[in-house]
TrEMBL record:
Species in which this protein is naturally found: Paludibaculum fermentans
GO cellular component, as recorded: cytoplasm
Domain 4'-phosphopantetheinyl transferase per the UniProt entry, residue ranges: 5-105
NCBIfam families: acpS (TIGR00516), pantethn_trn (TIGR00556), PRK14660.1 (NF011254)
Gene (UniProt): acpS
Protein name (record): Holo-[acyl-carrier-protein] synthase
Amino acid sequence: MILGTGIDLAEVDRIQASIERYGDRFIHRIYTEKERAYVARKANKYERYAARFAAKEAGMKAIGTGWRHGITWQDFEVTNLPSGRPTITFHGVAKQIAERMGVKHAHLSLTHTKQYGQAFLILED
């Protein structure tokens, strides 16, 4: 059964501008160590950061909290399965909420272009 869905679209230019303006302070506040390591190995870094930003927003929507209850950016982490398929891992308060909801499976789809990074998330029991 579907327990939650979330979708978000992030503008690559806005993410790039934030990174250029705030540097590591922005990157370390938003992205986990694993996310930063993944992006560092890839081309089109700003597009990949934008897609992960969108995934975090989609995660907030899927668990129904937004920024309430002490949710932080780092509570949502985009990782990749051995197949390469992206998924989302919950930490902290988001993990507690997802467990209370009965979330057992997360299905994440990411896409990006030069202009946008997009994420769609489905949570199931």
